[in-house]
Design a protein that fits this description.
Helix content: 25-40%
Number of domains: 2
CATH class of the largest domain: Alpha Beta
Strand order of the largest sheet: 18-19-17-16-22-23-24
Strand content: 15-25%
Structural class: alpha+beta
CATH topology of the largest domain: Nucleotidyltransferase, domain 5
CATH superfamily of the largest domain: ATPase, nucleotide binding domain
Number of strands: 24
Length: 482
């Protein structure tokens, strides 16, 4: 028996087939474009997304040579936040607006001035930023009132893909719990939150909430024709991708944190209680296990920055690692600010290099990109260590884990031990585990998983810390330009 996991991220959509032991039999991925026709915009064509998703599923099944009737259930993991809107006939209402979109920056600034985030936080356990559904909806209400009036349903990306597969409308709990319209204590939507944000009429546009491992519907005849799936195959609620990677990192206590390096930098930990004594407003969300919360810090300041430069310079990862390996650690004066897609230091801050001189080469710039991504990650890690002071181990997932150079740099910078779970396609596998649970399959698969490990080189720790301090000074200086 087999289980299909789909992972819809910032730049790729993937599908993979697993058996109930966790063995992967086939995986296909395709690029999904981000449309950015204006500064700060990040959109996605919803029909194109579904077509690519259907194609990826079809290819995965075809490559596996597994009969569709043997696929028992389907789960979807996806990038969180953003807004995927349907009209009142359940058709896409324009392009989806992604979580990396920044068009609502003036609205968020206004809310900050009015101290709205502080009023929301005790109920939502969320901060407020441009990629939240409420920020995007507020922008649409202000700038596109005709479109706003046509909204029939508000979804996030995996909710939309699940609807395309099943025809059923739900919002999945791990994702919608971080929408700023969810009461964390009560475990449901809260209309008073919508009223505080001047969005009281929108709360009725959110469909019922469904748990990650509960069956939300079954593959329709139309979806079966497009995907090659068997009509009637169960589809479960699915997961916020941050939760999916935390599941695959097998965080079993508060001494371990999960670092995700992908389009976003994410640091997460798992707890069974909300700590009301912390001064920092930590973001909490519902976890995919009963009575547990995921706590995380995140920003779109990660490996997506490197991807942009790879496209400009036509490079490959092997040559990048070879160039950086030849350089002494943190030896150059070049600093890179990894804010091509957003910032974790201040609204409106942008990317750039500082400290270049004539003797610097492409290798020095690439080294600075690696360093800058990790220096930005330190902002989140340092904050998370306030909430998880006993954390000594980082379990790291994401594309950069394939670079031993980058991973050793992270160990040396943090002074912490790294463990790299040897789980293929964590987004797909986490979703597949929810599919297994949906049809009553025990998924305790990761208790003795293999880990690649990196120990910090203490001789390099101080060197990286000194350069990190310079990065912090640069960031604080750049804030005056915004």
């Amino acid at each position: 028996m087999y289980y299909l996991g789909i992972d819809c991220g910032g730049t790729f959509i993937k599908a993979a087939l697993f058996d109930q032991t966790g063995k992967m039999f086939s995986c296909v991925r395709e690029n999904i474009s981000v449309i950015s026709e204006q500064a700060g915009y990040a959109e996605r064509d919803m029909m194109e997304l579904w077509q690519i998703c259907a194609n990826v599923i079809q290819k995965t099944i075809s490559n596996s040579h597994i009969p569709p009737k043997d696929i028992q259930a389907i789960g979807i993991s996806a990038q969180g936040k953003g807004a995927f809107l349907l009209d009142k006939k359940n058709k896409p209402l324009g392009r989806a607006i992604l979580s990396s979109d920044q068009r609502a920056i003036s609205i968020v600034r206004k809310w900050q001035q009015l101290e709205i985030p502080e009023k929301l936080y005790p109920t939502t356990r969320q901060t407020l930023w441009t990629g939240h559904p409420v920020s995007i909806l507020s922008w649409i209400k202000e700038h596109q009132p005709e479109r706003y009036a046509q909204i029939g349903t508000v979804l996030m990306s995996h909710d939309y893909l699940r609807f395309c597969l099943t025809g059923q409308l739900y919002c999945e709990e791990t994702n919608i719990s971080e929408s700023n319209l969810y009461n964390m204590a009560l475990g449901k939507y809260d209309s008073s939150l919508a009223e505080l944000l001047d969005l009281k009429e929108i709360i009725s546009k959110f469909p019922p909430i469904i748990a990650s491992n509960k069956i939300a519907g079954y593959v329709t005849a139309d979806a079966a024709k497009l995907t090659g799936l068997k009509e009637g195959t169960p589809v479960v609620g699915g997961l916020f991708d941050v939760v999916s990677t935390a599941l695959c990192a097998n965080l079993d206590d508060e001494t371990k944190l999960n670092v995700v390096l992908g389009t976003w930098s994410v640091v997460s930990g798992i707890t069974d209680y909300i700590d009301n004594h912390q001064e920092t407003p930590f973001v909490y969300g519902c976890y995919a296990e009963p009575n547990k919360f995921i706590v995380h810090e995140a920003s779109p300041t990660s490996a997506g920055n490197l991807e942009w430069f790879i496209k400009q310079w036509n490079l490959d990862y092997q040559s990048i690692n070879q160039q950086i390996e030849k350089l002494p650690p943190a030896s150059s004066s070049v600093l890179f600010v990894p804010f091509l897609y957003g910032s974790n230091a201040g609204l409106g801050m942008q990317a750039g290099f500082y400290g270049m001189q004539a003797h610097h080469t492409q290798a020095h710039l690439l080294q600075a990109i690696y360093e800058g991504v990790l220096f930005s990650l330190m902002h989140h890690l340092n904050r998370m260590k306030q909430r998880f002071p006993n954390a000594t181990v980082l379990r790291v997932t994401g594309g950069p884990t394939k670079s031993s150079i980058w991973m050793q740099m992270l160990a040396d910078l943090t002074g912490m031990n790294l463990e790299i779970p040897e789980v293929e396609e964590t987004g797909c596998f986490g979703a597949a585990q929810m599919a297994m649970q949906g049809v009553n399959i025990n998924t305790k698969l990761l208790e003795s998983q293999a880990m690649a490990k990196y120990s910090p080189n203490l001789a390099n720790f101080e060197i990286y810390q000194q350069k990190y301090q310079k990065y912090q000074v640069l960031i604080n200086t750049l804030k005056h330009l915004v």
